[in-house]
Description:
By secondary structure, this protein is an alpha+beta fold. It has two domains: 4-138 and 245-364, no CATH class; 146-239, no CATH class. Helices cover 59% and strands 16% of the residues. The chain has helices at residues 4-32, 36-40, 46-54, 57-82, 85-91, 96-137, 232-239, 252-260, 266-281, 286-297, 307-333, 337-342, 345-364; strands at 150-153, 157-164, 169-177, 185-196, 202-214, 219-229. Strands 1-2-3-4-5-6 form a six-stranded antiparallel beta sheet. α4 packs antiparallel against α6 (96-137), α4 (57-82) runs parallel beside α10 and α8 (252-260) packs antiparallel against α9.
Amino acid sequence: xxxxxxxxxxxxxxxxxxxxxxxxxxxxxxxxxxxxxxxxxxxxxxxxxxxxxxxxxxxxxxxxxxxxxxxxxxxxxxxxxxxxxxxxxxxxxxxxxxxxxxxxxxxxxxxxxxxxxxxxxxxxxxxxxxxxxxxxxxxxxxxxxxxxxxxxxxxxxxxxxxxxxxxxxxxxxxxxxxxxxxxxxxxxxxxxxxxxxxxxxxxxxxxxxxxxxxxxxxxxxxxxxxxxxxxxxxxxxxxxxxxxxxxxxxxxxxxxxxxxxxxxxxxxxxxxxxxxxxxxxxxxxxxxxxxxxxxxxxxxxxxxxxxxxxxxxxxxxxxxxxxxxxxxxxxxxxxxxxxxxxxxxxxxxxxxxxxxxxxxxxxxx
Length: 365
């Protein structure tokens, strides 16, 4: 037979996972729409788009996980009240702690998973995401040509594409090159192909076309079967610029080392210190949230009293706690020392508030 703690954990896991799936799906979909244009209009391969958006999931989970645990706890406790399961358990001589301890055990599991997210998965996934995004916007991104429009490549190269046959195969291309202002050159090709050279720089291979060069006194025409248009001169300088590393990409030790360097900009130092504290503090959020939910709902319901009021109060308490935590973390990024260390008092305040609410409920009960 299933024990009471096992039943409690099983009952709270279902709504938690359901809330996690719904919230993660909605937020992931909204975030993915930002990159959908790269697939529809600019020919980015769908597998690259899918990989790019999947790298967002660890970052999304860091915020959604505590909320899902909180929502799952509220839903489970409310159902126990409405179905009189809580009354039955209490009438058998079990105290509220018999139900609270399994809930806190589930919260501890969420805390451990949160630390795995913040300490391991988040830095790695953010680095993968930023690297791929940078590559798309610089090397490959410069040749993600949109159909039916004039695409600017660098400052002196304009490409008009009539149709894209595949991710790298083009049809009906017009290229206008003004890198030499005194002798502008125009290419027209029936077909084209986007390739990368040995160093990873993009090149445009034109096939079956005409090259027209306008000089001071004459116009030259040349037909070609295949022409390798080198655009490295226009785009190479931009592609050689190093990518600025985001604070979420650093490991915990690297955050402290970089924040201690005098060569690091002062704004970056504040963000690194705030990120270091955030990775240690934010995963603890499920515990005070569970205690707040239990303080309002883990009590015998009063006669003729709906559970909606208690659920609304629990929800407001959780929103207030998360809002205060996010607000103080945002202030700490601007260099406020009081917010950097003061945010550690929030879990203590949350647990104390939960204890006071529960005591007040017992007194009124």
